[in-house]
Amino acid sequence: MITVIDGPAGSGKSSTARAVADKLDIEYLDSGALYRTVTLLYLQAGRDKTVFFQLLDQAKISFRYCDRQFHVAVDDAAVTDRIRTPEVAEHVSEVAALPRVRTFVNHLMREAVKDGIYIAEGRDLGTAVFPDADLKFFMSADIEERARRRYNERKPDNPALSLEEVRRNIQQRDLKDANREADPLKRAEDAIEINTTNLSFEQQVDQICLYISDLI
Ligand code: C5P
Fold this sequence. Notes:
- There is one protein chain.
- The chain has 216 residues and is α/β, with parallel strands linked by helices.
- The radius of gyration is 16 Å and the shape is globular.
- Helices cover 51% and strands 18% of the residues.
- The strands form 2 sheets. It has a 5-stranded parallel β-sheet with strand order 2-6-1-7-8.
- It has a single domain (2-208), classed as Rossmann fold (3-Layer(aba) Sandwich).
- The structure holds cytidine-5'-monophosphate (C5P).
- Cytidine-5'-monophosphate binds at residues 9, 31-32, 35-36, 92-93, 96, 122-125, 173, 177.
């Protein structure tokens, strides 16, 4: 069984999906973390696409959710701490727009969810990756609120970060994610829309838990 949450950066998908997974004791899948992991390979390749595709063909990417964190590894070496840097954030949307990258990540995800009960979050899960998902949500919130959330989340690990830099990065990524040719950020027609601008975190989590509890 799979529930998907799509939405733009900072809409609250990740924290909500994690809290739902913990509350209902189900598995959590963070598709953005996989695109970020692949972006590390792109940076490692010096942003040379030929070298990057070779690395992608050879790399073994593994992931698991435990202790409230989505862990990712490349060839069994943990990279979880390296995927949230400004450098990765700057390049991830250009990497995620490559059809070959999307095929790679989609395959990883579809294999992973074959067994178990999952909640997964991303941009195109309800439209392209899991069009037959049992439940689909689309989360949104206004840009100021999203920038503020991301800023508060990242600031402790990155003291030099400014709110303006975060807002700019989010706006640029939204634009690229929504306008790319391959599987753009889009609300599935049958997705339930949740605007989180004025909802408390608990309200968001409870709403989704109620829907899922009805099915399991
Ligand atoms: O969710 P997060 O902000 O970590 O995602 C990072 C980037 O990964 C997004 O800006 C987007 O470019 C890409 N992404 C995507 N499709 C998904 C999830 C993320 O293209 N399903």
